[in-house]
Write a structure and sequence with these properties.
The protein is α/β, with parallel strands linked by helices and about 350 residues long. The chain has 17 helices and nine strands. The mean pLDDT is about 95. The chain binds coproporphyrinogen I.
Length: about 350
């Protein structure tokens, strides 16, 4: 079994395995070259020839312990029937859901067929990767995906989505249930196509009070975990509720997670004492210290490694890699993580 999978099965390895969120991306010149060949970002995600090459780039360069499917969390709303597009320099855009009537136009029926190109990418990746490199599939967690579907793109304060949830929890719940159902199908298809580990990105989970966090973030994410585990009990699921802070113990207890992702702000001594000691953890390095590199990076890698000694831990960032990251700093990081201590 690869070191990444052994860690997710509960082993504490020194040195820990390492991969980086958004490790394939614009900071790599070879990514920018291949990106230029696709007419738009969704077409890029749905072209297995291009999308298979991209996750292999950082594996070749840095020898990381895992590769992640190249796609986006917003392929799911597209597969549910919503209009989704990516504007250069702006980011994702969606035809926003405004009322319950808009929900009736969405359906999970087309999910497997529409997202089959992503599964084809996974099939090709598994063949191309050596056994010791893990293959991660992923999806957005329901609240994070719902927020884009209602806001129509990125948001700072999530006013429309939150007001909908508070004013009409039943219809908001129907949207969440639809996303749960679509995500379960998509993740089961990803496992059938070769994904060995699944990650749920809850990028915007840090905006709720406790009851709403439980209702709209951790419980729907746990429902996905439970349904995937019923079919594939051996496939670990990593939940990454970004900026959830004091809600992390609640998230940890909601399901039998393969690991929990920690953003940059989580105090590691607190995480050690507040989260079950057998639960593997992942993350925490500030992407900006990776941009800077040198002795600042060295100090942060030491801090994180020593705080996580003796418990199952996957070295990773606390958020996606920054596009200004010098690739040589990633090489430095991998060397530092693999130093024997
Ligand atoms: O033209 C480009 O290169 C567009 C930039 C880009 C990339 C490289 C987008 C648009 N998506 C992606 C790929 C992507 N997105 C991956 C690929 C695998 C890898 O990690 O290497 C993954 C896992 C995602 C996940 C994703 N997309 C998240 C969750 C993680 C996070 O960053 O919090 C979110 C919120 C999105 C939405 C999205 N897609 C793209 C952008 C710029 C955004 C974020 C917009 C925002 O901040 O609201």
């Amino acid at each position: 079994m690869s070191r990444f999978l052994r860690t997710l099965a509960g082993e504490s390895l020194s040195p820990p395995p390492v991969w980086l969120m958004r490790q394939a991306g614009r900071y790599l010149p070879e990514y920018r070259a291949i990106r230029a060949q696709a007419p738009d970002f969704l077409a890029f995600c749905f072209d297995p020839d291009l999308a298979t090459e991209v996750p292999l780039q950082p594996i070749r360069r840095f020898g990381l312990d895992a590769a992640i499917l190249f796609s986006d969390i917003l392929v799911l709303p597209h597969a549910l029937g919503q209009s989704v597009w990516f504007e250069e320099g702006v980011g994702p855009r969606l035809e926003p859901l405004r009322s319950e009537a808009d929900l009736l136009r969405l359906s999970v029926d087309g999910v497997s067929e529409t997202l089959d190109p992503c599964c084809e990418t996974l099939r090709r990746l598994r063949k191309a990767l050596p056994d010791e490199v893990g293959l991660i599939g992923f999806a957005g967690a329901p609240w994070t995906v719902a927020s884009y579907m209602i806001e129509g793109g990125s948001s700072r304060d999530f006013t429309r989505a939150k007001r909908w949830a508070f004013a009409a929890p039943e219809s908001f719940g129907r949207l969440i249930d639809l996303i749960v159902a679509g995500t379960v199908r998509y993740l089961l298809d990803q496992v059938a196509a070769g994904a060995q580990v699944l990650q749920l990105f809850d990028s915007w989970s840090g905006v709720w009070a406790e009851p709403a966090f439980r209702q709209w973030c951790s419980a729907p994410a746990a429902a996905i975990a439970q349904q995937v585990r019923q079919r594939h009990p051996d496939v670990p699921l990593i939940y990454f509720p970004r900026a959830a802070g004091g809600m992390l113990p609640e998230a940890a207890g909601a399901a039998d997670w393969g690991a929990l992702g920690l953003d940059t702000t989580v105090p590691l001594a607190w995480a050690r004492s507040s989260l079950p000691s057998t639960l593997p953890l992942q993350g925490n390095l500030d992407p900006q210290v990776l941009v800077v590199g040198g002795s600042a990076l060295e100090a942060e890698v030491r801090r994180i490694r020593s705080a996580m000694t003796g418990r199952p831990f996957v070295f990773n960032l606390g958020h996606g890699i920054d596009k200004d990251t010098p690739p040589e700093n990633v090489s430095q990081l991998v060397e530092l993580v693999r130093e024997q201590t």
